[in-house]
From TrEMBL:
Origin: domain of life: Bacteria
Protein source organism: Algoriphagus alkaliphilus
Pfam families with a match to the protein in the record: OsmC
Protein name as catalogued: Peroxiredoxin, SACOL1771 subfamily
InterPro entries: KH_dom-like_a/b (IPR015946), OsmC/Ohr_fam (IPR003718), OsmC/Ohrsf (IPR036102), OsmC_Ohr_Peroxiredoxin (IPR052707)
Amino acid sequence: MHQATHDYAVQLEWTQGRIGQLSSPELETIIECATPPEFPHGIPGIWSPEHLFTAAVSSCLMTTFLSVADHSSLKFEKFTCRAEGILAKQDGKWMMTEIHLFPELTLSPGEKEERGIKVLEKAEKACLISHSIKTEIKMTPTILQYELY
């Protein structure tokens, strides 16, 4: 039986300048994060809140897709997803206005393209992170057939 809520603990510690470290008592990996270079004192080459926000939507699409594909018995060989988050001013405030998802799905031999698209669309509609935000999500899937050589 599923419990009514789930908690995800995250700790942030400022280290220097505009840099901090994200950690969780539940996880081994520490992620360094910083102000993006487009803003004053921003630092290139480090994950920013904007990268993490975009990654949350993309990774939710993947995990939801894996669940829906499993439920649907969809056979596939590969899943990748490029994502682009758009930061823009809206009503005088900076916000992530859009996220464009470009999933690429390679189907196993015998699987139909329409079924792959249907499973991806169902996953995109069911993504709980997408449900939790105001940002407009746009998905442009590419379906490939696995070729035996």
